[in-house]
Design the sequence.
């Protein structure tokens, strides 16, 4: 995918120096915004952050190249790990640099990074620089600040005026803040025309939390950064303002139905109604899809063999399958069928053989990939586990008066058929 970028930065109305630094490396597919803490050397530390993360990724270019050649879930996991390591390594390097110089001791920077590889965005951040998805006339946050306030809001606490919360903006993670900093990672499959915004808190402070509906989101890509800068300045401009917009495959605004690529849209339709995913929003589902593999089966191909251990969850996107539990085959219209999900947790052996009875497309999640995603996305993990629990309860209730279909599906371990 071709990526265009547009950027605007301003010191604001109060600060004498602009401590924000932005990075664009189109050849590497790397884009970032670093926001140095208010300090005479704040900009220097932000520059170090951008330089070090770029250096680390260029040094490990082989991982990026492998993903560019074959984007499987395993390759995505490898590259996702590299991007996170890049920020954590950068933080350690910057910390060592700052602590050894009297005029930079204690100086740190927030950093948000986006690496575009094939049709995927690998997003990592430490601090309160943010990344948004720009679509449907709104800015949808893809990152959550590493601040006290953001943590409290994530736990469901409400505040009459967030600006008056003590220590609200205090960071617990940033580049160079501590000897070891844990970055947060998010992977997203992109659509042609999807746009991403990377910005400093000098802009996002005026956005507040959650989805922000604004006519600016419908403007032409080349105009959005400047319009956002003017928006922040018109609301006080208390801090430096930087807005870096990434436009995938040129300047276009997609209608709602095309906000994700057709491949992603088809998969979303297959999983959105499943009981185990009922508490997840589309952004969480798109992130999950980035860690799954798509497999194509011809008529007669065996997906799962009875008694053979699997450590994968299968979701049928399209096609038809036959479930044979030894008492005759039971044919199921495949779309939305979910198979083997309990084996991810208990390691049980399949009690049926599953065969494609026509060309079938299946989305597959390995235990390693799913658990890796859950570790990186605690909010997703909690909602997913709630969905699994409710699915199990639903299955137990069906046992009271099971019909023939319920018995077959329950024996195999399917949660639901749609």
Sequence:
């Amino acid at each position: 995918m071709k990526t265009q970028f547009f950027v605007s930065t301003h010191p604001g109305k109060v600060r004498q120096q602009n401590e924000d630094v932005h990075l664009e490396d189109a050849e590497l597919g790397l884009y970032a915004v670093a926001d140095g803490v208010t300090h005479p050397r704040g900009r220097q530390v932000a520059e170090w952050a951008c330089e070090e993360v770029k250096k680390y990724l260029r040094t490990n270019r082989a991982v990026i190249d492998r993903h560019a050649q074959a984007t499987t879930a395993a390759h995505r996991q490898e590259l996702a790990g590299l991007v996170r390591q890049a920020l954590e390594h950068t933080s350690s390097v910057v910390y060592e640099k700052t602590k050894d110089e009297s005029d930079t001791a204690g100086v740190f920077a927030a950093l948000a990074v986006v690496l575009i590889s094939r049709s995927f965005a690998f997003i990592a951040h430490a601090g309160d620089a943010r990344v948004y998805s720009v679509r449907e006339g709104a800015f949808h946050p893809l990152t959550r600040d590493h601040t006290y306030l953001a943590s409290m809001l994530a736990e469901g606490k409400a505040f009459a005026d967030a600006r008056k919360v003590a220590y609200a903006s205090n960071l617990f993670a940033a580049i160079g803040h501590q000897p070891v900093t844990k970055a947060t990672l998010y992977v997203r499959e992109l659509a042609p025309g999807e746009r991403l915004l990377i910005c400093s808190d000098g802009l996002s402070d005026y956005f507040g939390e959650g989805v922000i509906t604004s006519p600016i989101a419908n403007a032409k890509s080349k105009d959005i950064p400047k319009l956002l800068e003017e928006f922040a300045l018109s609301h006080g401009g208390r801090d430096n303002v930087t807005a870096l917009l990434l436009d995938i495959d040129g300047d276009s605004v997609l209608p709602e139905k095309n906000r994700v690529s057709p491949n992603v849209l088809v998969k979303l339709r297959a999983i959105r109604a499943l009981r185990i995913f009922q508490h997840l929003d589309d952004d969480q589902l798109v992130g999950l899809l980035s860690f799954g593999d798509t497999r194509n089966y011809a008529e007669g191909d065996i997906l799962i063999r009875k008694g053979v251990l699997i450590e994968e969850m299968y979701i049928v996107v399209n096609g038809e399958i036959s479930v044979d539990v030894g008492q005759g085959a039971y044919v199921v219209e495949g779309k939305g069928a979910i198979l083997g999900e309990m084996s991810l947790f208990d390691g049980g052996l399949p009690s049926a053989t599953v065969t494609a009875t026509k060309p079938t497309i299946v989305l597959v999640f390995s235990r390693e990939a799913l658990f890796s995603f859950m570790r990186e996305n605690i909010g997703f993990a909690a909602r997913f586990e709630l969905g699994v629990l409710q699915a199990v309860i639903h299955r137990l209730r069906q046992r009271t008066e099971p019909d023939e279909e319920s018995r077959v599906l329950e024996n195999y371990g399917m949660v639901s058929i749609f």
